[in-house]
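Shipment paperwork, digital attachment
Item: protein structure file
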Amino acid sequence: MHAMQYELTLPADYDTGIVHARVSRVGHLLDDWAGLGLKAYLLRERGTHGSPVNQYAPFYLWNTVEGMNAFLWGGGFQGLSEDFGRPAARQWTGLAYEEGVAADSAARFAVRLRRPVPDGVVLGEAAGEAVAEAGRLAREDGAVVAAAAVDTGRWETVHFSLWEHDTPKADGDLFQVLHLSAPGRAALPRGRQW
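Attachment content:
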């Protein structure tokens, strides 16, 4: 599993209805993308759910590098770049994935938390803690999915979870889910990924 996210922080007075309309128009295009586990079309709106910014920040869990590369180099990412400019696409290697207790529910909200892996820690223990946190999140009321991944270039973990309600028991930035494309969700490998 590979995780990927890009963020487009928009002006404070930006009409986020433009993002809603764009996702309504193009969101379905990844509903059958080969190699994609899931893509959550995420939006934070300034002043809503405590967000200080307007931000469009889709989050991906890929089953295959080929699927991710086909998206980045084969045209899927090009449309976004033409509309908004080309953002940095962050990537993390998967540590864990779990289906949540509300796995059959619609994902309405997402939480993303990035945190550094401190110098001097035992790396296997840090990864084990990330795996345990994904499991804990998946067991919380309203959890649809939970994942953990690591960027070894920055030594940073990311925890990502989808929820059926706006009061998740997870720390991090809260996003609205505008659309969920999940063609390969059932194929995402469960549990610890090493």
